[in-house]
Amino acid sequence: MVEISQSIAEDTHDPVETARQTLQSLNPDDEEYFATLNVLANQLMARFKRSGSPNDLNEGVERTKELLVLTSPSHSFHLPALSNLGMALQTRFRFLGDAEDLTQAIHHFEACVESCAPGHSHYVPFVANLAGSLRSRYSLDGDISDLNRIVEICSIALSICASENLYRDVLLNNFANALKDRFEKRGDRADLEIALTYYQACLDLRPPGHPKRYLVLGNLGDVMHLKFQVDGDQDLESAADYYVAALNLRSPGQEGYVLFLTGLGAVLWTLFDAKGDTEKMEMAISCYQTALASSTVANLDHARLLHNYGGALRTRYTKFGDINDLNQAIQYLTASYNINIQSPSFPNRFITVHYLGGTLLTRFNATGHVADLDLSVEHLASSLQLCPPSHHERPGILSVYSSALLARFHAKGHVENLNLAISVCKDALDSLSPKHATYSSTMGNLTSVLLECFKQSGNVDDIQVIIDHCDTALVSTSPAQTAFITLQTNRAMAFLERFQYGGDKPDVDIAIDPFREVVEALSKGHVDYIPAHTGFATALQIRFQLTTHHRDLDEAIEHYRSARRCCRRGDTNHVPVCMGLGNALRLRSEYSGDIDALDESIVLLSEVEELMSTASGNSWYTVSLVNLGIALFMRFQAQRNIADLNVAIERVTRGLALPTPHEFIIHSTLATLLSVRYDEHKVLDDLEQSIKYFGSAAHRMPENHLLRSTLCRNYGHTLAKLAHYRDPIDNLNIAIALYRDAMTRSPNDHYDQPLTVLQLAEAVHRRGIILQSDDDIGVAIHLLKGLIQIVPEGHWALQEIYRSSASTAMDMYDLYKLFRPSESKGEDFMEEAFRYYEKGARYSHLSSYQSVAIALQWAGFADKLNHSSALQAYRTSLNSLDQHVLSTQSVKHRHGTLHRLARHTSSLAVDATACAIYEGRVELAIELSEQGRGLLWSQMARIRTPLDSLRSVDEEGQTLALEFERISSQLARRSVSASDGVLLVSRLSQEEDARRYRQLSNELDAVMERIRAKEGFQSFLQPMSFLNLQKAAAGGPVIIANVSERRCDAIIVLHDEPPCLVPLPHATIGGITAMSGMFYRALKATSYVGEEKERVKQIVPILRRLWDIVVSPVVEKLAELQLPRGSRIWWCPTSKLTSLPLHATGPYRSRTDNLSNIYISSYTPTLSALIRSRNQKASHPGVPPPFIAIGQSNPNPENSTGESELKAIAGELDLVESLVPTSMTFDRISDDNSTADAAIEGLRTHSWVHLACHGNQDLAQPFDSSFSLRDRPLTLLDIVRAELAHPEFAFLSACHTAVGDENTPDEVIHLAAGMQFSGFRSVIGTMWAVDDAMAETMVGAFYKNMFDGGVVDCTNAARALNKASKTVDKNVVSMDQRIVFIHIGA
Asked: Are 265 and 288 in contact (CB under 8 A)?
């Protein structure tokens, strides 16, 4: 244990108050003041050690700090004051665990040591104290430099420390601690021996009766136990004696008690291991039980206790076999591990990880649960990684780790069964002649086994043995014999395997002909029908990979389907058939862009993986993992859902951990996936791991293997990426060489050849940029132009060729602009670049993401260079983004897609709008703004489109309307599926759902095309034109506030006049972003009662600034348009303006009007959303709508969610009930009755709703934003999913109901928007937190104005809210609570 030299002796009295009173009677200038303050500080620390009161500890630290302030560096007490403060901070660190205290303590101790010479009387205690604090830091961080520093200073101090020095014992103890720790880190036996010597010397200086004797006794117990573990010949009984002696000096609750019990238990446990004395084991467990009862703080000492206790229980299990001991051991070891991971640098963490891994292995051996085995291997690998190379525990870890790996091999490999089968077959053959009746069938079995053996070993020489055996047997085997088909099939498979390893094309042709003969000879029902068709399909599929002749792949798929039609689930052929068909469909998707084929492929491969996951020892399991990973990777390339890539890597990585004969294929696959993940996250470790795996694959893969060309290309592509970091020219040269090697290995007409040439061109282009070489860039352009000429339309690589050609031409433009500005050829390159960008962006293939990426590049360059194609580029970008997002099944996944693309697309709509404004096309700007914002709501709205006009056209219109509604309703349910995000749903179910979603989407697209073919419906569900969007302004002007990096403007949309552009020259995206941050920080910083005036003081300047730069110019323009005061206006903000209260802006000066006194503000997420609100029909015209008030003051009272009780809710509901006209049916649910299901039912059956409860904004997944009800949250997705009948008005009296996702603000995803989308024409929401008492007052004022005169009309809500905010008592409702409510909708 660590100790520090004490400045005072512990006093059994309590003189703190006496010293405090004396100090209070003195002035700081009094002579006695300093000494009295010193006494008070010391006595506070002494009383803390007796009482454990944190108040005493904190005051003691502060008083010691005062002492230090009173001493100048030349003061005689300055160094003791520094030391005392260090000791006080060290004590507080040990009590409270704040690392900053430890850092400060070390700083003060270092200052003490540096300030006095070694001969100084205080030098030794100062060194002892510094050593103790440095060791404490080492225990946290594991930095051996702290130990080396201790050894350095203690060596000096000990060399000058006299034997009679009062602090010699402390110095020896702390010096020995550091040496013992350093031995455990480095393994230098001399450190351990010297540590023992110093501990013994320290003990000699602390005879019986010494107050600190217990510390060195415990340390001697530790070192003696350690020496036994290292040498095996140390007397363990002496270690136990030291611990017992230390414990006799301590009692429960005192320092060292738990540690000494833990140490004694460890020694007794070791004694049991060494001698088999069961009594010692029980004594050890008893020690741990006693220690656990006294250990209450979850620190590293507690972790050590749990570690030892768990290890002892595991040992008892091995002795007596009680599974409860094993389960309890894992529980304790896991708890210890969880504490340790909070200190990732803790030096001995690996020991607990080791024991946990070993204990999990023991339980696997007892129960066979593979999850325990996998976790065991993971922990043991981690332990080995953490363990220092020379640590004495390392051999034990290696031993257990090898046992775990061996156990997993036995659980999932079963190679010994294969070897046994070979032995049995050979024994049988030795007793048979070729004329024997069973010779052919035995040879058939032998060659089947030899094929499996080859798949394990990869020894190509074995293939000829198989072929020779088959040829020999076939000579004496008639076609009528059953064995004939087996032998023919095995012979064909042997040639096929040799082809894959040797690359000799005649081999694959030789394999196909016998397969065709066999397949044609067999009828359905024959025992070999399924495997023959499967083998034939496999051969055709392999030949396709060589030649890329589509007829081979199409025929392969047909034969797989023939086999599958005859193959029942559970049949031994089911897995290879489904896997083969899945892989063939994946290839079809890869080479033709058939997304339906990819969907079916993933469903099939997911089914295989699900089946194999319960039989992981099956030889197909590893293959199933890798194949599913490749298919998911293909979908990632199309849709860019990072979850697909991560799952793919996880599956392939899992396959890598299993026994496999084709490790090089897995290495190559994993390398490719990691290289692509690097593209997403730019984590260099992914790239370096990728290169490592490529190198391994290149070393292991046979030189002429079929996949060698692909390996060379992908390896080169990854090295080209590495060139961004180091050795650019060298890495690019190697990459170029690999590309050229890949080209020579594939036929010129191979489908993959264009990709190889493309990547070669990109590498040469990159080298040219670095070297500023026109020649290299010219070669790149030549290669790309050659590709464009020869690659047929529809080829999957053509889009990427266009993109690369555009990028290369743009770089040439830049070079000409830089070095040859006078030459017009540079402009030619620019125009060429934009032509290629346009072609690439409009190219339709598998990857919708690639279309988005190219269109965004096009738009970015065109806007930057003021090119004439800029607007078209933005239009294309918006269309591509819409299609890409819509390709994802659920609305939550679509939001995830937008979130991942946010850094590229978050400003797309506002930039497109700004571009159109710049070109003077304001109406187009409105169309682009509408198209690019609220994308998710718009997509969902499409499938809820009313079709009355279509029905009224003719009979075909009625049929199309029914068909559209049928498909739309299914898509709507899938978009907001209740299972979305549920972890228990199997991957197979998820993939089947995804495939069905895409099928429905395709069906809907076909129906929409038929609808658009009808007269008058050409623009059905197309982006709305300005003439249609203008309808949003039927009730008053709508102001689109567009905030872009390029420019900021407001566009006033009028109902029957052209739109008015209002430039906002003083507004910038940076400034508005800053204001948004300042506004919400001000609200947060002044959120307490009594801070209202300060809150107003901070937010008014922001509102005033927002008025000046955004709102005032709009108001001035509205005045020019002669819009009467008191008229309604609608704000449609963009970007960061969506988070600012435009309605509350104003000059906030005397005798001037704020906006709320000029116009009545409402908000709308988009123009189309407002149009839908206006078009929503009243529930029962002429009949007062039913009203429901839903309140929940205390959600989950038994399982606290951390939400405070809203005490004003009941009063608020009473107030609402009193103000609702008696003509309206009023219902109320609250307290235990206000459950989520009850609320949904209330929303379905009532047109008007008042909802008062906690509101929760989920920033990560806004569709999970919710209202807190009694049993569970009512989420935004629940509301959207509810399909409400006749909603009209909703008042959301809850926090944050109108605040969306800050990463995608233009999507406006929040609770109020969800209510509007669900059909509520008029919604009151909140932009930040509300005070429930003040909300009640606002609610009362609102409903008084809403129902003034007895009129029930939801469109009066904006006026009622405006009036309420101005008429409530300002002494009761603070300013921020008057403006927190906003109106959305009609």
From this structure: yes
Q: Nearest Cα to 1282, choosing from 1236, 1248, 1227?
A: 1236
How do 1273-1275 and 1289-1293 pair as beta strands?
Answer: unpaired
- The percentage of the chain sitting over the pLDDT mark of 90, rounded to a whole number, equals 26
The better pLDDT of the pair 952, 746 is held by 746
The burial of 889, by beta-carbon neighbours within 10 Å (0-12 exposed, 13-18 middle, 19 or more buried), is given as buried
Task: Give Rg (Cα) of the chain.
Answer: 39
Q: What is the pLDDT of residue 846?
A: 54
User: Letter for the amino acid at 557?
Assistant: I
CB environment 1174-1200: b (16+ within 10 A), e (fewer):
eebeebeeeebbbbbbbbbbbbbeeee
pLDDT (0 to 100) of residue 1063: 96
Q: How far is CA 1274 from CA 1191, 1196, 1243, 1268, 1321, in A?
A: 12, 13, 12, 6, 20
CA distance 1179 to 1246: 9
Contacts of 8 (CB under 8 A, 6+ apart): 42, 43, 45, 46
The whole-angstrom distance between residue 1157's C-alpha and the CA centroid of its chain comes to 47
DSSP single-letter state for residue 759: H
**Distance between CA 1219 and CA 517 in Å, rounded?**
88
CA 1036 – CA 297 distance, rounded (Å): 65
Residue 1201 neighbours by CB distance under 10 Å: 12
The mean of the pLDDT values for the chain is 83
* Tokens found for residue 532: 């023959």
Contact yes or no for 1343/1196 (Cβ under 8 A): no
Q: Which residues pair with 1053 in a beta bridge?
A: 1038
Residues 426, 446 contacting (CB under 8 angstroms): yes
Sign of the alpha-carbon torsion through 1213, 1215, 1219, 1225: positive
Q: Which two tokens stand for residue 360?
A: 């999990």
Amino acid at residue number 541: Q
Burial class (CB in 10 A: 0-12, 13-18, 19+), 725: exposed
* Ramachandran quadrant class, 1230 (left: phi over 0; alpha: psi -120 to 50; beta: rest): beta
- CA max distance for the chain: 121
- 9 in Cβ contact with 138 (< 8 Å): no
Question: Which among 1339, 1234, 1241 has a CA at the least distance from the CA of 1294?
Answer: 1339
Cα–Cα dist 92/301, whole Å:
17
Q: What is the DSSP string of 1096-1121?
A: HHHHHHHHHHHIIIIIHHHHHHHHHT
Compute the distance between CA of residue 1068 and CA of residue 915 in angstroms, rounded to an integer. Answer: 15
Q: Distance (Å, rounded) from C-alpha 1229 to C-alpha 1235?
A: 9
H-helix or E-strand spanning residue 1053: strand 1048-1053
3-class secondary structure per residue, 763-794:
HHHHHHHHHCCHHHHHHHHHHHHHHHHHCCCC
Residue 1306: name the closest of 967, 898, 880 by CA.
898
Closest Cα partner for 760 from 714, 698, 697, 711? 714
412: closest CA among 158, 135, 71, 660? 660
Lowest-confidence region among 44-58, 98-112, 889-903:
889-903
State the DSSP code for 70: T
Whole-prediction pTM: 0.58
Alpha carbons within 13 A on the beta-carbon side of 1195: 22
* pLDDT surpassing 50 at residue 139: yes
- Non-local CB neighbours of 915 within 8 Å, separated by 6+ positions: 863, 870, 871, 874, 1046
